[in-house]
């Protein structure tokens, strides 16, 4: 069976790093790649950043590889996450030998709830200059992310599971989140620690080695995973998966980087590592491992793009990775 | 005129660091100190963590110095911030010569909105396992914090002002926040940058030296200021002010630290530096500067508590600071 992988390069360096990742995937698996459009450049032409066709193709594909979008990022990625039915945003943040990092001992995976919290989009201006947003936390979504998080920790050999929250202030909503996590943990016999999200931000900087899998409400996961990018040297190396019941979307954590777009020097590692997550998700565990170790060996001693202090191009780095496969 | 300063030691190390700060304040100014109770130990006795009397005394005092509370922290500090009419939470985070820091070049001041956002406490369980929280952002509170932030930057010589937000997701509420800040900046001719709070979390780790004053919605300020504590070596050195129109409350950013409470080895620096902020607020700018430089010189070459690698007691450190005044 040939799986269909939708590729959506998007804007800016998305157009450079997605083809790089496709060439790596092409070297290890036999996917049918279909391309679709999204982003600022589409909005400029048609008035809509995410064409219906792209949404539907993502919903129908076996998996999607997304690059980045510029100003329209939220208009593109939030619906695309819905298109694939994603409930979990998986964001590993680890350092690599040979890459300078503030905290080389970092090996974290954020399991971010991907459907609710402040992302529900329920807002209004209830009076002149008085605005509200409704944050939603449900038992269903919270149990689902907890189940996914504990299972991920077990399968990937992480002993420490931490649950981020701010239930001392958001008593009912994050109280619900904690209760749901507790119910799942109890049922499955899982151990974990609760951590206030503010204190956790500090502890991740001071003692990252004490943490492994971090299960988070939506916005906390957004912030804490970017913070972790700072611990390992920036966004150029961070892949992510938006996992649904039977579909998923993979994307680098970085954005469209308009400052370097078009120069051919974007670091393709985050997108290629997102491709490795895609391989794993579709059942190609061995191929995923091969891609990961090729990226690692090039990061350690191969050509580097300028963000890592080198002067190699996206193509040079990609070719070196393909060579290692 | 003798100002009345309410002191509320609270729980745990609050009972050790507040007396330390009072002895420093006593050495440089002529305040009338009044003591009041709050915290876990009060709740255990009376069922309420914050007695009405403490609330009223805080409202009536010229300023309050608070230590820390344990499990009841939110029940104590959130009403106390209201008692003094605080709209701005001011949290400087800087490193000190001689103190190990992940990012010694850090010199940040978070100006956190202190009345609304997710802290409004409007929550409900609208159906079984379905909970909501209403986040509130108003033009009034946003303009007020912006005015305070720009003025603080001018008066304290910070060139860079950054406004944290997540308006790509919280479009109406953080959109309001940004509009209000923009109106204030326009009226006063102030320059600033907007920064998405997730990206900012990363950039503060990678390039703290590019930031100065950071104006934040309430919860973002809570998280980002704790993150900054990680950059400068932990919470033991971070003071804060909760500033109102004509009253204010000062507190260390750290908590009650039950693990070391009662041992007499808590680092008093954060509370003494909070005392310096109190002095400055009440018009004793020179005395505030004297206290700050005494703390700096002891941090650089005096006795140290165990959190900074020393084996001195709270009393030793406090005595050394008083000696330097
Ligand atoms: C673009 C934005 C809507 C998005 C998010 O907040 O999820 C981004 O920050 C991310 O982390 O993928
Ligand atoms: C105790 C808690 C309510 C408080 C807050 O969230 O403001 C604390 O984290 C702080 O930063 O002072």
Count of spatially separate domains of chain A: 2
Q: What would the principal axes of the Cα set say about the shape of chain A? A: globular
Instruction: Name the beta content range of chain A.
Output: 15-25%
SSE run of chain A: EHEHHEHEEEEHEHEHEHEEHHH
Q: Low-confidence parts of chain A lasting 5 or more residues at pLDDT below 50?
A: none
- Estimated radius of gyration of chain A: 19 Å
Summarize the main sheet of chain A.
10 strands, mixed
Q: What oligomeric state is this?
A: homodimer
Question: How would you explain this protein's 3D organization?
Answer:
Two copies of one chain form a homodimer. Chain A has eleven helices and twelve strands. With 325 residues, chain A is of the alpha/beta class. Chain A has two domains: 1-87 and 238-324, Isopropylmalate Dehydrogenase (3-Layer(aba) Sandwich), CATH 3.40.718; 101-232, Isopropylmalate Dehydrogenase (3-Layer(aba) Sandwich), CATH 3.40.718.10. In chain A, strand 8, helix 6 (173-188) and strand 9 (193-196) form a beta-alpha-beta unit. The longest helix of chain A has 17 residues, at 139-155. The first copy, chain A, is globular and about 50 Å long. Chain A starts with a strand and ends with a helix. At the A-B interface, helix 4, strand 6, strand 7, helix 6 and helix 7 of A face helix 4, strand 6, strand 7, helix 6 and helix 7 of B. Strand 7 of chain A pairs antiparallel with strand 7 (130-138) of chain B, so a sheet runs across the interface. Bound molecules: 3-isopropylmalic acid (2 copies). One 3-isopropylmalic acid (IPM) sits between chains B (73-74, 77-78, 222) and A (168-169, 198).
